[in-house]
């Protein structure tokens, strides 16, 4: 199983750290190219390497860790998103004041899904800071909860497997329509919560 990561900021690297630790093969990419990722890849160790956005999107699962305003550029760079499993940790905020983007009454992930035609989108990993996402997921005898939702069962199962393997407790919130608004920042009930599932 190979995971492609687009975006090497706080969230992309925190996620990369967790999946590399769990033994996944990872290709990480950004806007500046593979050379800019030499140090990051060295620090990640394991089976991590730098690559192009095209190489990252050829992986089995893609983690799309770019800012909302950069989505159209990334979406347009790949000619065919059909059947690609994409994890969406994106919060729909726009600099410089980080107000919510215009979403036309939809959840942000419904808009992202439209930008990536045919992709199998799973919303997840957007409710924590990079520090918390990168921290050891076991706490107080339990596991930190990661919420996820999406419209494609097989894609959700693939993401659930990653969540399990990296040591978090996955909680399925249903379809994008049902779950994405709860997960969304700003406005959702779940961002910022550090919940631990006790076994
Ligand atoms: N930070 C948080 O607390 C937090 C929490 C939850 C969710 N999120 C969400 O997670 C996403 C990433 O956040 P972040 O804080 O990690 O962002 P960030 O630090 O700004 O990093 C964004 C990354 O996207 C890359 N990028 C921009 N345009 C690109 C393009 N056209 N092609 C490929 N890569 C491109 C940048 O590349 P370069 O490095 O080359 O510039 C950078 O590595 C955002 O949508 C954010 O809303 C953030």
Describe the protein.
This protein is α/β, with parallel strands linked by helices and 199 residues long. It has a single domain, classed as NAD(P)-binding Rossmann-like Domain (Rossmann fold), CATH 3.40.50. It has eight helices and twelve strands. It has helices spanning 10-21, 38-44, 53-57, 71-77, 108-115, 130-134, 153-165, 176-183; strands at residues 2-6, 25-29, 48-50, 61-64, 85-88, 93-94, 99-100, 120-124, 138-139, 142-150, 169-172, 196-198. The strands form two sheets. Strands 1, 2, 3, 4, 5, 8, 9, 10, 11 and 12 form a ten-stranded mixed β-sheet that branches. The longest helix is centred in the last third of the chain and has 13 residues, at 153-165. The protein is globular and about 40 Å long.
Number of strands: 12
Distance between the termini: 28 Å
CATH architecture designation: 3-Layer(aba) Sandwich
CATH superfamily: NAD(P)-binding Rossmann-like Domain
- Global shape: globular
Give the low-pLDDT segments: none
Report the total helices: 8
Structural class: alpha/beta
Number of domains: 1
Question: Summary?
Answer:
The chain is an alpha/beta fold and 199 residues long. It contains 8 helices and 12 strands. It is globular and about 40 Å long.
Features:
alpha/beta, 199 residues, Rossmann fold, 8 helices
């Amino acid at each position: 199983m190979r995971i492609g990561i687009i975006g090497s900021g706080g969230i992309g690297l925190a996620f990369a750290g967790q999946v590399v630790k769990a033994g996944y093969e990872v290709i990480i990419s950004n806007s500046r190219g593979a050379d800019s990722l030499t140090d990051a890849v060295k620090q990640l160790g394991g089976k991590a390497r730098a690559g192009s956005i095209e190489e990252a999107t050829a992986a089995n699962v893609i983690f799309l860790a770019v800012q909302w305003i950069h989505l159209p550029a990334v979406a347009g760079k790949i000619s065919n998103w059909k059947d690609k499993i994409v994890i969406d940790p994106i919060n729909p905020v726009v600099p410089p004041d980080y107000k919510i983007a215009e979403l036309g009454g939809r959840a942000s992930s419904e808009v992202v899904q439209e930008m990536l035609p045919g992709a199998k989108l799973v919303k997840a990993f957007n409710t924590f800071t990079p520090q918390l996402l990168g921290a050891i997921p076991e706490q107080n005898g339990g596991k930190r909860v990661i919420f996820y939702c999406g419209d494609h069962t097989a894609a959700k199962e693939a993401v659930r497997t990653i969540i399990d393997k990296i040591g978090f407790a996955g909680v399925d919130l249903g379809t994008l329509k049902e779950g994405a608004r709860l997960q969304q920042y700003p406005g959702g009930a779940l961002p910022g919560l550090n919940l631990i599932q006790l076994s």
